[in-house]
């Protein structure tokens, strides 16, 4: 009876999310066409640059103190552990199914990177609003839920736009390299021949070895300098220091620095109008990103060439293997004293493993120009299954920690 009550409690926030996703999908259809491609792009930019930074910064500033920061250190570690385990499962999947090389990064990304930020920002506050929620009163529960989700969002963004971006880029480049192998070899051999036969090359043969070594050192330094500048200017590094990451840092600073916190937060704070305005802006983030998720799923209805074995494999990884692994990781961390006894905190750590693939993977696919249609189909089926699996895992996690 207790487990059934928890199941009903966990069902309500998932149903709310599904209803808003259905509205987003309907608004993206050709008949309505309010969330067509350009509209989604503009709304996504608002979420990325305005709504989510305001929501994340305010959530962390209002809830995180120095004491809380010491207790939350395991959440970023938990995020990267889940990414490593998911990458391992994804690597096994591409080997078993013999996935084309240019899609390896996409499959590993869908297996490792979860939508642990935006989905948690939707689910945790909605769960706290239920009267039968076992984690206490709604105001404090919602605040801590937003803080946990904000920190997860920042950590997931760092992983997606650093490690995963380079994995997917190397896989996408493999397709181009295979098609142009012969041309590249011919160009390289021609270049080598011309360099060997050039007059400068003949003079270099007569130079002492010390001069050759100096030239090699200069060339190596120039190459290293160019590589470093390329990294600094790359899109991935810009995404790591995205507005949401910067907002996380600012939120931590405000929450930890007591004078700044007292000046911005509270009924008697002299600058409370700034904080309240940011909160008002941030509240638009959750419904906006949910509508975008629904609109993006419309692409998956049109299908692609991705095989059913890949779809089933990713569904099994994200909805069975990863949630089960999350229980083991959190329980071991608690026994080793790395996680405190707060049931809501343990619940959130476990729930990070049960989320569907991250939407940022689709953005990377668009940037790289490969795997976009495959990702849409994978996301469609994963979100359909997640509607049921998340409800079951939420109920089981609540029963387990309480």
From TrEMBL:
Bilayer topology: Multi-pass membrane protein
Cellular compartment(s): Endoplasmic reticulum membrane
Any Gene Ontology CC annotation: endoplasmic reticulum membrane
Domain of life: Eukaryota
A Pfam short name: Mem_trans
BP terms from Gene Ontology: auxin-activated signaling pathway; endoplasmic reticulum to cytosol auxin transport
Protein's UniProt keywords contain Membrane: yes
Segments crossing the lipid bilayer: 6-26, 46-66, 72-94, 106-127, 147-167, 240-261, 273-298, 310-330, 380-400
Keywords: Auxin signaling pathway, Endoplasmic reticulum, Membrane, Transmembrane, Transmembrane helix, Transport
Keyword Transmembrane helix: yes
Similarity section: Belongs to the auxin efflux carrier (TC 2.A.69.2) family.
Annotated function: Involved in cellular auxin homeostasis by regulating auxin metabolism. Regulates intracellular auxin accumulation at the endoplasmic reticulum and thus auxin availability for nuclear auxin signaling.
The protein, known as: Auxin efflux carrier
Organism field: Corchorus capsularis (Jute)
């Amino acid at each position: 009876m207790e487990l059934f009550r928890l199941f009903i409690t966990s069902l309500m926030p998932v149903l709310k999310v599904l209803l808003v996703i259905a509205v987003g999908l309907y608004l993206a259809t050709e008949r309505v066409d309010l969330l067509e491609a350009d509209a989604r792009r503009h709304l996504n930019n608002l979420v990325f640059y305005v709504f989510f930074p305001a929501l994340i910064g305010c959530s962390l500033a209002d809830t995180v103190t120095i004491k809380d920061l010491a207790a939350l250190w395991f959440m970023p570690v938990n995020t990267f552990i889940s990414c490593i385990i998911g990458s391992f499962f994804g690597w096994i999947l591409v080997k078993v199914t013999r996935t084309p090389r240019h899609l390896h990064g996409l499959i590993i990304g869908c297996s490792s990177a979860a939508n642990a930020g935006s989905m948690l920002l939707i689910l945790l506050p909605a769960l706290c609003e239920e009267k039968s929620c076992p984690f206490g009163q709604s105001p404090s529960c919602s605040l801590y839920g937003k803080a946990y989700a904000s920190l997860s969002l920042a950590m997931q963004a760092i992983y997606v736009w650093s490690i995963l971006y380079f994995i997917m880029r190397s896989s996408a480049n493999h397709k181009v390299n295979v098609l142009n192998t012969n041309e590249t070899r011919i160009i390289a051999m021609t270049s080598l021949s011309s360099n060997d036969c050039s007059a400068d090359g003949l003079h270099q043969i007569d130079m002492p070895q010390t001069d050759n070594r100096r030239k090699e050192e200069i060339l190596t330094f120039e190459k290293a300098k160019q590589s470093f500048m390329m990294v600094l200017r790359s899109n991935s590094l810009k995404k790591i220091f995205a507005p949401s990451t910067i907002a996380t840092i600012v939120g931590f600073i405000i929450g930890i620095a007591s004078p700044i916190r007292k000046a911005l937060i509270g009924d008697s704070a002299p600058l409370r109008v700034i904080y309240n305005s940011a909160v008002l802006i941030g509240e638009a983030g959750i419904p906006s990103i949910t509508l975008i998720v629904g609109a993006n799923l419309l692409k998956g209805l049109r299908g692609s060439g991705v095989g059913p074995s890949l779809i089933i494999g990713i569904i099994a990884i994200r909805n069975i293997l990863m949630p089960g692994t999350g229980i083991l990781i959190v329980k071991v961390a608690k026994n080793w004293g790395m996680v405190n006894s707060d049931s809501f905190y343990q619940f959130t750590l476990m729930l990070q493993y049960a989320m569907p693939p991250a939407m940022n993977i689709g953005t990377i696919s668009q940037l790289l120009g490969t795997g976009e249609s495959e990702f849409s189909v994978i996301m469609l089926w994963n979100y359909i299954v997640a509607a049921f699996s998340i409800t079951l895992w939420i109920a089981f996690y609540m029963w387990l920690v309480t």
